[in-house]
Design a protein that fits this description.
Blueprint: H1 19-22, H2 30-37, H3 42-45, E1 55-67, H4 75-88, E2 93-95, E3 110-114, E4 127-132, E5 136-137, H5 143-160, E6 161-164, E7 170-177, H6 184-196, H7 198-202, H8 207-210, H9 229-237, H10 242-249, E8 251-252, H11 257-261, H12 263-268, E9 277-278, E10 284-285, E11 298-300, H13 309-329, H14 341-354, H15 360-368, H16 390-400, H17 405-419
Parallel strand pairs: 2-3
Antiparallel strand pairs: 1-4, 1-5, 1-6, 1-7, 3-4, 7-11, 8-9, 10-11
C-alpha cells in the first residue's frame, strides 16, 4: 500500500506494496500484532498522509422491539412510543407513513418504519421495526459526532424497550464519498476488494449471515461464479461506467431460487422472467449507482442485527475503514494471491487509527473473533445462500416494492450538497 509502506505493521521491510497485504501468515504472533497496532504512537501513525477519501454513511437497523412499560397491540403504537422517547432524548426523528414517502425534513432525522420482513409476535407485544439514520461523516474529525448520535439512539432504545435480534434482523451500512458521488476508479477498487476479501469478511459475521439469501455472495453470482479472481479483476477493470460495474456485481440468475421466487413480481413489472436480472440482496449492493454519473450509495448488507451502540459502531467502523482501504489499494492487489484475514485486519486497524477513531478496540475485538469458514466437500462458498425457505420466499416478494428510505435521504443530501 503506497501511503503506508514506510511503517508496515510488522517487522521488516515489505518487498512490494502488494506483498504486504497478502504474505502475512495466519500463524503470526498476536503479541507482536497488538504492540504494533494498538500501541503505536500518534506521531508514528501520521508519517505520511493517506490518499483515501472521507465517506458519508447511513445505517439501517432492523430490530425486534418490545416496550418495557406498555403492552402495545400494533406496530404503529410501538413506533409512536419510539418516536416519543427519541424526541425526549433530543433525537430528531419522523415516523414513515405506510402509504406515503418519508417526510422531506427527515433527511436530517432518524426515520422509524415498520419492518414487515422481521417476524413480529403480537401476542408477546414484540414487533419488527426499522430505524434509518441521517447521513453522517465517517472521519475528518467528526467521529465524535456520529458516535454520540448512535450512542444516544441505542441507549434510548435499550432504556425504554427490550431490544432483541433474530436471524431476520440486520445492520445495513450505506456509504458514499464525502463529495456525494463516486469516481469510477473508486467504484472499481471497492468492487475488486469486495470480491477478493469476501471470504475474509465472511469470517467476521455469524454463520447464518454467510448463508443468507439477503446477503448472497458477489464472488459467486451469475457473472463472476466461474471465473478466476484474475479474470474477475480484468472484467471489473474493463467496465466503462459505475453502472456497468453495479450490474455485474449484482447479477442474479433467473433460474436460481431467488429468480423463481420473484418470477411473478418481475412478470407483473413487465420484465421477462426468463432473463437474468440485477437484484440488491448481495453482500455488497452496488445497484444504487445505477442512477448514473457515479451518484448513489454502495450498501454493505451482511452484518447481523445490532442491539447495542457498540455493535452498530463496530460495523460502521468496519465498512468505513474497508472503503478507505479499498480506494488506496487500487491496482496493488495481486488477484492470484490468497488473502489473509489477519493481514486485512491489521490494515483495517491502521485505517481506524489513522482516522483517530475512538473505541477502535471494538473493531479489534471483531477481528480477534474471526471464525474460519468450513464447507462440505465440493461445496462452493456463497452458493448455499440460495436455499430459500417458504418464509424467505414470501419476504423476497414483500421487499420487491419496499420504499428505500436510505436512498430517499441520499437524494435530499446530494441536493443540498449541489446547491451549496
Amino acid at each position: 500500500m503506497p501511503h503506508i509502506v514506510s511503517y508496515a505493521p510488522y517487522s521488516g521491510s515489505p518487498s512490494s506494496t502488494s506483498s504486504s497485504i497478502h504474505s502475512r501468515s495466519s500463524h503470526s504472533h498476536r503479541s507482536h500484532h497488538d504492540s504494533s497496532i494498538r500501541h503505536r504512537s500518534s506521531s508514528r501513525r501520521r508519517e505520511v498522509r493517506p490518499s483515501a477519501p472521507d465517506f458519508r454513511f447511513c445505517v439501517e437497523l432492523g430490530l425486534v422491539l418490545r416496550s418495557r412499560e406498555l403492552n402495545h397491540k400494533t406496530t404503529h403504537e410501538l413506533e409512536r412510543e419510539v418516536s416519543v422517547q427519541l424526541t425526549l432524548a433530543k433525537v430528531a426523528n419522523a415516523i414513515a407513513s405506510p402509504t406515503t414517502s418519508v417526510a422531506t425534513e427527515s433527511s436530517r432525522q432518524w426515520t422509524i418504519a415498520s419492518e414487515h420482513c422481521i417476524p413480529s409476535q403480537p401476542k408477546d407485544h414484540r414487533f419488527g421495526v426499522k430505524l434509518v439514520s441521517p447521513f453522517m461523516r465517517f472521519s475528518a474529525g467528526r467521529h465524535e459526532s456520529w458516535i454520540a448520535k448512535i450512542s444516544t439512539v441505542m441507549r434510548t432504545l435499550n432504556t425504554h424497550f427490550e431490544v432483541t435480534s433474530s436471524h431476520q434482523c440486520f445492520t445495513h451500512v450505506h456509504i458514499v464519498p464525502v463529495t456525494g458521488y463516486w469516481k469510477l476508479q473508486q467504484v472499481k477498487s471497492l468492487a475488486k476488494s469486495a470480491l477478493y476479501f469476501e471470504r475474509c469478511l465472511d469470517e467476521l459475521v455469524p454463520p447464518y449471515r454467510r448463508r443468507s439469501v439477503w446477503a448472497k455472495s458477489n464472488r459467486n453470482n451469475k457473472y463472476f461464479a466461474h471465473r478466476s479472481m484474475t479474470q474477475c479483476f480484468d472484467k471489473v477493470d474493463r467496465q466503462p461506467s459505475a453502472e456497468s460495474v453495479a450490474e455485474r456485481m449484482n447479477l442474479c440468475d433467473a433460474a436460481s431460487p431467488t429468480g423463481a421466487s420473484l418470477r411473478s413480481v418481475r412478470a407483473k413489472n413487465d420484465e421477462n422472467p426468463a432473463l437474468d436480472f440485477t437484484h440488491d440482496t448481495y453482500r455488497w449492493n452496488f445497484l444504487n449507482l445505477q442512477e448514473g454519473g457515479g451518484f448513489g450509495t454502495v450498501e454493505y448488507r451482511q452484518a447481523p442485527g445490532s442491539t447495542t451502540s457498540q455493535e452498530v459502531m463496530t460495523w460502521v467502523m468496519l465498512v468505513g475503514c474497508f472503503a478507505r482501504l479499498s480506494c488506496q489499494l487500487g491496482d496493488s492487489i495481486k488477484p492470484a494471491d490468497l488473502p489473509q484475514t489477519e493481514s486485512l485486519g491489521e490494515w483495517l486497524m491502521y485505517e481506524a487509527q489513522w482516522c483517530s477513531l475512538p473505541y477502535d478496540d471494538l473493531l479489534q475485538n471483531l477481528l480477534d473473533q474471526a471464525t474460519p469458514t468450513s464447507l462440505a466437500a465440493g461445496k462452493i462458498p456463497g452458493m448455499d445462500a440460495d436455499n430459500i425457505t417458504i418464509d424467505d420466499d414470501q419476504r423476497l416478494r414483500w421487499k420487491a416494492g419496499e420504499h428505500k428510505y436510505a436512498i430517499d435521504k441520499y437524494h435530499r443530501m446530494i441536493t443540498h450538497l449541489l446547491r451549496d
